[in-house]
Design a protein that fits this description.
- The chain is α/β, with parallel strands linked by helices.
- It has a domain of about 180 residues: Rossmann fold (3-Layer(aba) Sandwich), CATH 3.40.50.300.
- About 30% of the residues lie in helices and about 10% in strands.
- It contains 7 helices and 5 strands; from the N terminus they run E-H-E-H-H-E-H-E-H-H-E-H.
- A 5-stranded parallel beta sheet has the order 2-3-1-4-5, with helices on both faces.
- Helix 5 runs antiparallel to helix 6.
- The radius of gyration is 38 Å and the shape is globular.
- About 25% of the residues are buried.
- The N terminus is likely disordered.
């Protein structure tokens, strides 16, 4: 056995071995013994002094001291950081808000959300559920192939991802507008899920033009976002369930994108003054 630093230790002392015992490795002689006729106890010498322990070498830290984080990451508090906006907000366009724009395919959600975010006085981000869902390339659950467990899983994952992104923006003082086709007959998965992901101050607004307008706009789409007329009609019929829900509804059948955005501002100003119960 050796010290961590220094020369080898001597072997352990054994009773009966004198101070002249030979401990040299490879010695032909064993330890010395008393001469014949010797009687009496062999004096036991004191144990050799223990060499002073050497101070351990300084250990360098494995992790360097943390530098100020310049990545934009913010440690989020428990729950949603967006609370209910103050009813006395002086200017809704300059207030940090979280808005959920609901509507069927072809309602103009994405166009209105982008325009609204572009023209606010407060910093505002647009988060589109379809955009995030299409981050999946190989293995993408195309809605044109029908609804199944695979599609459900990817929609849920996209909603959680959008919700986390919204919370991170809001924690940095940046407003958010999200758009999604949330159905009134699935409150736990849809509206309730968004409220859990973003926070209690989320302001939902329904964008619901007439069926003929939705069909016309859907026909102008391309790729996997274009649905069959039958599917569009079915979704539009389910969206009609928002009437009587207490949520604000905008019929933008006769409105262009800037006009719809102006009405959205008016609706949000009223929602701030008197938040809807949902």
């Amino acid at each position: 056995m050796q010290h961590a630093v220094g020369s080898p230790l001597p072997p352990p002392h054994q009773p009966g071995h004198g101070p002249h015992a030979n401990w040299a490795a490879g010695s032909p002689q064993g330890p010395s013994v008393p001469p014949p006729g010797f009687s009496g106890a062999v004096p036991v010498p004191p144990a050799p002094p223990t060499p002073p322990a050497q101070a351990p070498a300084p250990q360098h830290p494995l992790v360097p001291p943390s530098a100020p984080d310049v990545s934009g990451h913010v440690s989020l508090p428990p729950g949603g950081p967006v609370g209910v906006p103050a009813a006395t907000a002086p200017d809704p366009s300059a207030t940090t808000l979280a808005v959920l724009l609901i509507g069927p395919a072809g309602a103009g959600k994405t166009s209105v959300a982008k325009y609204w975010a572009d023209h606010r006085r407060a910093a505002t981000a647009h988060i589109s559920l379809d955009d995030v869902r299409e981050w999946v390339r190989s293995g993408f659950a195309d809605p044109q192939t029908g609804w199944n467990d695979h599609s459900e899983a990817q929609y849920r994952l996209a909603r959680r991802t959008c919700g986390f992104a919204a919370r991170n923006f809001l924690a940095n003082g940046i407003s958010c507008i999200l758009d999604d086709a949330v159905f009134p007959d699935r409150p736990v998965v849809g509206l309730g899920g968004w409220k859990r992901h973003v926070g209690p101050g989320l302001l939902p607004v329904v964008l619901l033009p007439g069926l003929d307008i939705v069909l016309e706009r859907n026909a102008e789409r391309s790729g996997n976002r274009r649905l069959t007329d039958e599917e569009v009609a079915r979704i539009h019929g389910r969206m009609a369930g928002w009437y009587g829900s207490g949520l604000p509804i905008i019929d933008n059948s006769q409105l262009d994108v800037p006009g719809t955005a102006r009405v959205l501002d008016e609706v949000l100003a009223r929602a701030i003054a008197s938040p809807p119960s949902w």
